[in-house]
User: Fold these one by one.
Assistant:
Number 1:
Amino acid sequence: DIQMTQSPSSMSVSLGDTVTITCRASQDVGIYVHWFQQKPGKSPRHMIYRATNLPDGVPSRFSGSRSGSDYSLTISSLESEDVADYHCLQFDEFPLTFGSGTKLE
Amino acid sequence: QVQLQQSGAELAKPGSSVKISCKASGYPFSSYYISWIKQTTGQGLEFIGYISSGSGGTNYNEKFKDKATLTVDKSSSTAFMQLSSLTPDDSAVYYCARSDYSSYVGSYWGQGVMVTVSS
């Protein structure tokens, strides 16, 4: 199975910060990475699809990028509503695999 | 609007089975796949497998092949997952999710079902 190594596992943040979370894939997964946001007791919310694209309704302060096997989610000018857990997902190869998650505190 | 409504929390005894449901609305049910995902505090999110809502064809993560059975009822636009031979390690929140953006897991998720296995 493809391993998605996500870092950091947790991060202390302040309002207005620029935050970057990274997932490193154990093998090439192309553009086939999604990012999800999850708040306590809620289902994951889709924030980035195919590595760099924003679904409708996602604020433009969220962005996704790729450099080789490293995939990043960046939040510019962090707002209070962005404090949550974030998960990456690769869907290039079956079984789909998630990163271990990043908790913004 | 697209909705996936899952059944309620389950409390089950070790060795028993549970069957949880995911009722879809707001889109042509048979045109999409439904995936199932397990979430625990220790293991994070794990992909269990998917089912084609149109053909009923399935594909399971090897890890869950003997644990989960996925089915659909097209007449009620509902997907089901049966978990068998339950152990405490099966205690988790289970989500269904619809395919989207060229992926078996996309933007639409159910609200999750907490399954607790305890004697």
Number 2:
Amino acid sequence: NAGVTQTPKFQVLKTGQSMTLQCAQDMNHEYMSWYRQDPGMGLRLIHYSVGAGITDQGEVPNGYNVSRSTTEDFPLRLLSAAPSQTSVYFCASSPAGQGARVAFFGQGTRLTVV
Amino acid sequence: SQQGEEDPQALSIQEGENATMNCSYKTSINNLQWYRQNSGRGLVHLILIRSNEREKHSGRLRVTLDTSKKSSSLLITASRAADTASYFCATERAGGTSYGKLTFGQGTILTVHP
């Protein structure tokens, strides 16, 4: 069972470059989210989606774009990388509804912007 | 801003001892969840407690929730070296528009010495 798959695992970018972090889930979850984790800061929500075609901003959305064309995929695009975006990025998915909306996380993408 | 504050930031104990971590949050919530993160890995869900619950158990884990004080605690009994990890509390804010969006605390680093 793959769960949530993130690619790549590691990436080094130069300032100003753009790239897309990939996230795919095979659990048919409606909700998907992107978080960044910085030392001593815990995880902060960047963008999230409640279903295909529906996205919204989280706490720290600037510099990032998302789209959700399918239930399975939720890519995160860095438009013009900056050193402040050096972080570990996690994608998560969770089921919708009134039940326990537990998040399942990918293994993370460690991004360094030089 | 971070919803949750956790203490202690770091906890070092011997195998067999109990470990207690605390979490405080700021707004009304639907539920509060605890996650574990091993070094360099993704987060794994441990336990969820709903806003109308006061205590929950799962194996060696015991979680309490005091909504009047906006606080929660996680107790790990008879800890093992394999429990060494970072532990995060996460809250889903009250209301339907917050479904699937989690706000994380800064985490507690637990070290269990053999």
